[in-house]
Every structure is written in C-alpha cells, then in structure tokens.
Amino acid sequence: MEKFTLVTGGTGYIGSHTSVALMEAGYQVVIVDNLVNSSKKILSRIEQITGSAPVFIEADLRDTSTIIEIFSDYPITSVVHFAGLKAVGESVEEPVKYYDNNLGSTLSLLDAMALSEVSTLVFSSSATVYSSSEIAPFDEAAELGPTNPYGMSKYFIEQILSDIALGDDEWSIGLLRYFNPIGAHPTGLIGEMPTGIPNNLVPYIMQVAFEKLEKLFIFGDDYETPDGTCIRDYIHVVDLARGHLAALQFLEDANGSHVWNLGTGKGSSVLELVKMVEEVVGKPIPREVVGRRSGDIPVVFADVEKALNELSWRAENTLMQMCVDHWNWQRQNPDGYQ
Ligand SMILES: NC(=O)c1ccc[n+]([C@@H]2O[C@H](COP(=O)([O-])OP(=O)(O)OC[C@H]3O[C@@H](n4cnc5c(N)ncnc54)[C@H](O)[C@@H]3O)[C@@H](O)[C@H]2O)c1
C-alpha cells in the first residue's frame, strides 16, 4: 500500500530535496507551505526529477482547521515538519515573529495530528540548540543552550515533542539536528533560493562568485583554528534528505522520541570552503577579513555515530561535490525560481 506523508515547508530548500527522496522511495507526498520563503515553481521541478508532482496545498500551518482538512482528505500516516522561519539575525530583531511562527505552526500541527490520529513525526531541529560551552564533536547528549530566539524556538519545540512522546507512547518522534546544509540537487533543478542578501556562507560566496555581491566578509581570522577562521560541519542537502527518509523508516517501527545529529562528522574552515569554491568556479573570490561576529563558536562539527548505528545512515558527498552542485544550481538559476 502506498504511504502518504505530509511534508510541511516542502517547497523550501531542505523540504524540496526531502520530498524528492521520499517520492523516489515510493511515498506519496502532500506538501503544505504558505510560500513565505519559497515558490510554487519548485513543484514542476520536483516533477521533472521524480516523474510526478507532489500534492500541494498553499496554507499557513497555524490555520489548524485547514490542516485538519488535509488529514481528512488524504490517508496521511506520517509528517515531516520543516515549516519555520530560520534567519538567526532576524529572529533577534523580531523574536515574537519567530516564536509565533515556529511554535504556533508546530502546536497547530500537533493539534491537527492528534485529532487525526497521526502520531509519526520527523522534526527539523538544528545544531544551534547546542550550548556554546561544548567542545566539538557535539554528540546528542551534549549540553543544550541556544543563544538566539531562532535557536530557542527549536529548543522549545524539541522539549514539547519529547514531552508528548513521554506522555503517550503512541507517538514516535524524530528530532533531527542539522549541521550546515549546502549544495543542491545534482540536476541543478532545485536548490536554495535566498531572498535578498543571503544569511548563510555558501549562498553568499556563490553570489560573490556570480558578481551579484562585491566581496565576502570573513568574520575573524584569529580564532584558535589551523587557519584562524571558524570551522563548521557542511553537509550536502541530498545526504540530509536521505537522512530524513532513514529517520522516517526507523520511526515507522518504533515509538518514543529520538534525536539524531545529521552532519558529516568533519569540520571545514571558512577559508578551506572559499578555496574550494574558487577551484570550482575557476576564479578568485574577493574577500575581506573583518572583526569577529558576537556569538560565533570557533569549532562546530557533529558526532555522527548515533545516526550511523541506529539509522544506518551516513553522509556520502564530499565538500567538493557540495560546492560543484551548489554552483551548478546557482549558474542554472541565477535568480532562483524567478
Ligand atoms: N537551512 C539551514 O541551514 C537549516 C539548518 C538547521 C535547521 N534548519 C531548519 O530546517 C527547516 C527547513 O529549512 P530550509 O533551509 O529548507 O528553509 P526554507 O525557508 O527554505 O523552508 C522553510 C519553508 O517553510 C515555509 N513556512 C514557513 N513558515 C510557515 C508557516 N507558518 N506555514 C506554512 N509554511 C511555512 C516557507 O515558506 C518555506 O518554504 C526549517 O525549520 C529550518 O529552521 C535549516
């Protein structure tokens, strides 16, 4: 029998890649998204890749009655929940917007799920929930302590979901803590569509390479790392998408709440990444080193043993492949889905 899964935020960056992975594994995907940070045009791109279009419903997750209707219209048995706002800086300036959207969406979804007797959920969390006092590699038992409203919203949602699973053993919930997703589908048909000036490093570098932005600002080269720049764990979005599939399959035969890091387990510095992009695009990336950004942790990378042991999942793509695919997407779609 075909399995229907609801993908919230499925027209977004990670949601679209995960929808492709789910559809390729035989799932019927129903996407709900309010398009606040994505475009409907992605649906035909997904169809080009997979041979069929997902069902799409344009709605805000906070509209609980519409979400209940979706559950009654389709035989959905699980949910992969991506919908949320994700810009750290904006969350500091507009915390209420972030708490309202991220917590409000999740509470509304949980209400609709409970009423519809759907109790399998995969949630997009983030490595930003870890405390800055921890030393890499971060395993899932590391101390938590987010430092901004965006990270707090993920932390609160993790707590809510863990409490739900604790109180009712019908629920099976996966909390996926992503490290730094980059790259794009190898076809170049889907990828990240930043609106305005990108908040993340790789989309920013790509726009410098594309001469849409003048130069890259490197925030500090005096950290205690081999080249002085911050180290992060970059993961190919297609590997991340496969991680959701593995988590969902695990949860279909389990209950309780489970947390997994999704990263490569390997850190790369800002300078290493810049040099790799230079190799891929075949030209220098203009850059300027400026002062440290407050709150930046020098070294962040994942301990990925738990996902390997429990989900038999590991990231496979190299940093070079991530850069090649990201550039390929950027080149083919200089204005995103416009
Ligand atoms: N990209 C990253 O670096 C990263 C890292 C860690 C965690 N995450 C989390 O993963 C999830 C997906 O991230 P992404 O990079 O694909 O972001 P994205 O912005 O591309 O996708 C999020 C989608 O959710 C939709 N959305 C937002 N609020 C909604 C609402 N109230 N109702 C319906 N739809 C709504 C947006 O329109 C968008 O399509 C987010 O929850 C994000 O916080 C992302």
Notes on the structure:
The protein has 338 residues and is an alpha/beta fold. It has a domain at 4-182 and 234-263: 3-Layer(aba) Sandwich (Rossmann fold). The chain has 11 helices and 13 strands. A 7-stranded parallel β-sheet has the order 3-2-1-4-5-6-11, with helices on both faces. Strands 7-10 form a two-stranded parallel ribbon. A two-stranded parallel sheet has the order 8-13. Strand 1, helix 1 (13-24) and strand 2 form a beta-alpha-beta unit. Helix 1 (13-24) runs parallel beside helix 2 (42-50), helix 1 (13-24) packs across helix 8 (237-251) and helix 3 runs parallel beside helix 5 (95-115). The radius of gyration is 19 Å and the shape is globular. The mean pLDDT is 96. Bound molecules: nicotinamide-adenine-dinucleotide (NAD). Nicotinamide-adenine-dinucleotide (NAD) binds at residues 9, 11-15, 33-38, 60-62, 82-86, 101, 105, 124, 126, 178, 181, 200.
